[in-house]
């Protein structure tokens, strides 16, 4: 039977109850935390602490912050006690009971707070206590009577205090309990009461009740109604932007579409449900949905795709508890059976058997029904007929409790195959007849419901036609009465209208005369304004003409200024060349080597500044220097000046950077001093080496100059701050002028690094 195994997995998701304290949206939760931090130690702070802890408890399985919640509750309890705030103490104890509702001590905490509510005749808090008491019981068949009793007490009390929203919410939980008991008709009746209360109160978040109503109609075989309610639940959740449980509502739609055999819709909505679960980090739910989609793919004869999906999701979201592992194992057993990998199917089937035999096995007949059926199918495929028969009989027994007729029919079909294989023909025929009877009852029930729906539709249309006929007759009578009234009023209205027309005509005549006079006055004023505008336009044209002449003169002056600046830079460069030549001439007449060296260094410095001015008058943009070309010429000039082309290899890594003259001048002198120092001291003959100069951009306005040699390094005990050599003094002074960070290190030679920022104005040379 198609999709029967899919339905078995969905049994575990009959309903997903919304928490009693709904999870707040992130903005509201942040606002609540902000108010809590700013609150004074009064009763309002107690309320905020309780609200905050309840919100965290509703997120407990996703946030995993029980210690934080317990701290908030303890603060609320202590503050309520110090303020003698009895209601706050009850609320704080309820919050603790809500947190510990699955622990042994949680029920006792709720019972004590419930007793205090009854002593204070606080019916609202007593109603909350009865509901929270129901939360302390497991959702098992054995404990349903206790839970139902709690729900009925809470419903009665919420009705007494006229709180329809809370009354409707507890009615929804009561309906869920009835559905789990196998009483879908009773559940539907209660759910319709819940929806009526929601609508009367104007409460828009009805999706949880709509979803459960879809599940109830599905159980009753009212599949069209089930689909309508399931789609309405999705629309309601989207409309109110309450998407935490949207995966459940998508899943419900997919489950109902199975009854209509619309496979594309089934897979579409299950995938939407899985994506929603993953988005909200409901990993166990996403894993269960992967198993569900895999089973639908199996029905589509796509076993490899189904197996790949369930393996992928079980790896991404490893099962965290026995129930999640059971869902994955059931899906894998089905996939491996379809792909005829019986050894692997048997392995995972043994996992399911171990769970069914463990002491922690669930008492939920819906889960047991699906597990028994899966094991029975596997044992049948592997020809373990006695074991298959035992598990399939258990599946039938649990199926009769939860009223899953489709899967019961499938169990009967499998038992027919088991008995046929064992030669029990009479038993096989009996099970086959039972299988056909259940199938026929489902089919006939669907047909009868469809016929009843058509009859209702026919009666409704007939009644609407009668109503339409009566309405038309009434309208004709009313039209006759209105026509007589119109005839009577027409004469009176005509006379009044004639008087009004005459009065209006006279009034229009007077208004026209007044309008003519006003128009003539405005015309004269407009002509005067136009004359004034014409005069101002002529004056503006004259001003614009003068402006164009001034702009042309300004452009000519700018061109002349550029030529003059270039000429100045050219002459300065020539003068510096003359000074350099004079220094060279003077050095030839000196006998002292130190004096000759000093003159030579001064000559180099002058030459460096001459190069700068040469760059300036050759550049297209006066006032900016291409540092890559300038630095390259400095290094080339110095190497040739010291005649070290053969013994010193230069490596230049220069970014294409343009700098203002005020930055280029000190930077060029720093390069001169550092390179000169390296050529003089780093490579004493016959030593050879490499001199590296790099200029890099670190950020839009931050640069780094680095000069490195692999020479002999600095003398021992060298201290940059105490050095009195002229070269180092110049480098430090120019670095300070650039407001840069200078760093000199000695490791396999000397490395001089300068970081500077062009956004900072250079320090005036006089201040250095």
UniProtKB/TrEMBL annotation:
Coiled coil (residue ranges): 512-560
Record keywords, A-Z: ATP-binding, Coiled coil, Kinase, Membrane, Nucleotide-binding, Phosphoprotein, Signal, Transferase, Transmembrane, Transmembrane helix
GO MF annotations in UniProt: ATP binding; protein histidine kinase activity
Catalytic activity: ATP + protein L-histidine = ADP + protein N-phospho-L-histidine
Membrane-crossing segments per the record: 490-509
The Histidine kinase/HSP90-like ATPase domain, residue ranges: 662-760
InterPro entries: HATPase_C_sf, HATPase_dom, Sig_transdc_His_kin_sub2_dim/P, TPR-like_helical_dom_sf, TPR_rpt
Top EC category: transferase
Pfam families assigned: HATPase_c (PF02518), HisKA_2 (PF07568)
Signal peptide start-end: 1-17
Known EC number: 2.7.13.3
Database matches in SMART domains: HATPase_c, TPR
Official protein name in the record: histidine kinase
Organism: Hymenobacter fodinae
